[in-house]
Each structure stands twice: as structure tokens, then as C-alpha cells.
Amino acid sequence: LSDVKYLKEEDANRKTFTVSSTLDFLADRNDDGAVVSCRVDHESLNSTPQIAMQVLEIHYTPLVKIISSNSWPEEGQSIILTCESKGKPVPEPVLWTKDGGELPDPERMVVNGRVLSISFLNKTDNGTYRCEAKNPIGRNSTEYVLIVHDVFNTLLPTTVIPSLTTATVTTTVALTTSTTTSATAISTRDPNALAGQTGPDHALIGGIVAVVVFVTLCSIILLGRYLARHKGTYLTNEAKGAEDAPDADTAIINAEGSQVNAEEKKEYFI
Known about the structure:
The chain has helices at residues 198-229, 237-240, 245-258; strands at residues 3-11, 16-24, 35-40, 50-55, 60-68, 79-88, 95-98, 109-112, 115-118, 127-135, 138-146, 169-176, 182-189. By secondary structure, it is α+β, with helices and mostly antiparallel strands. It has three domains: 3-58, no CATH class; 61-146, Immunoglobulin-like (Sandwich); 169-229, no CATH class. The strands form five sheets. The protein has a four-stranded antiparallel β-sheet, with no helix packed on it.
């Protein structure tokens, strides 16, 4: 506060007094919205003083600041520059310039209110960009220096992926019987899954062995019965002779009848 002045007036007829107080100070934008109060104390007011308040409304020129969306712009990228302006009254739409002149490439440099968007950056975009705002109190501006950097290539560390070795396990099982029947089981599988899949192979091999044994036994039984039924003495026509064939038959039959507890003999012609 720079100065406070008081003024007192007296009414001789009514015996009243008027007291005035003036406050003089240099205001700035920080005082905008501040509340100033004046308080009066008098014995006739008992314990309740009289207070008057006033909210200050300070007009000031705009404050301007540029905010960038990209702290390290590279070629091919985009950047957005936002011009923040604060003033009272509210500043008019801002004005964007580059190196003291108009924006050189309106197709890539698009202004939308307080925002300047530049796409597909290249080295020609390097320069000083200015944002200017104004209101009835005055105008203000700020600058932003844009430097477009080369594309930064980062070499990623080489990651060595261990090679996967595939092992092939081949199991051959051969079963041979007297009937020259053979069964061969060849199994090729992932060694990682070998331990958990051996059960079904054993079952298959066991089934094949059972079938082979059953067929072999049946063959032996049938062959034995066949040989038993056709057991006897066999003579050819050449051995018997053409003329004495009937006598030979008779002699054989008689000999068979005369033998007691002898094995049965049969004659077949071949």
C-alpha cells in the first residue's frame, strides 16, 4: 500500500461527522480478483462493526507461453505447438509466424485456434516460430526455436535364440514263429513324449504276440489231427504191380484181420 488518506467533515447543526478514507496503490495482474474491505468501528454500533468489501478487477496485457508436444522432433515425425495466452480482457485469437513471416507450408502447417500442427517434419522446418496475442490493454508474444533432428537409429542388442535339437528314436521289434509269421513295430516320436506313450506300444505288441501264438497252436492241433486220421501203410501201383494188385489187397486185408491188438492199417493209392 502506497498511501492512505483520511478526511473528516463535521456538521455543526446536526452534530454529525463524516470520515472518508482513500487507498492508493499500484495494482498488477496478481491483484485481479483480490478483495478489499473497509471497516468502521463506533461506540454507537455496539459490538458489531460496519464492513464494506470490494472485489478488484484488474485488466492487463496477455501472458503468452508456447508448449511443445515433442521434446526431440525427428524427420518424418509430427509436432504440435500450443500457444497459451492469459489476459484480461480475454486475448483475441493468436497469430503464428515463422522467422518473422507467414507460415511457408500451409498444407503441413495447420493453425487451429491457438494450436499449430506441423506434420512430416524435415530440415526446412527449422526456424523460430512466434506466437502473438493481444487484447484492448496491449499485446505480447513469445518464441519457440524448432530444430528437426536426424532419425536416430538404435541398434537393438542381438538376442541369441538357442537352437532346438530334434532327436528321432526308432524302435524295431521283430517276432518270428515256426510259421514264419513276423510282426514289426516301428515307432518314431518326439523323445520328450516317449516316456508318456510307451504303454500303448506294449499293449499292441502283446496283442500281436497273443494272436500269433493262438494261430500257431491252432495250426499244430489241426496238423496233428490230420496226420492221425491218415496214418497207415501206403503203396503205389508200381510197387504192387498191375497183375497181382488184387492178391496184394487180399493179403493185406487178411494180415490185418489176423493180427490181434495191432494198429489199424489202411491202403491208399497214389
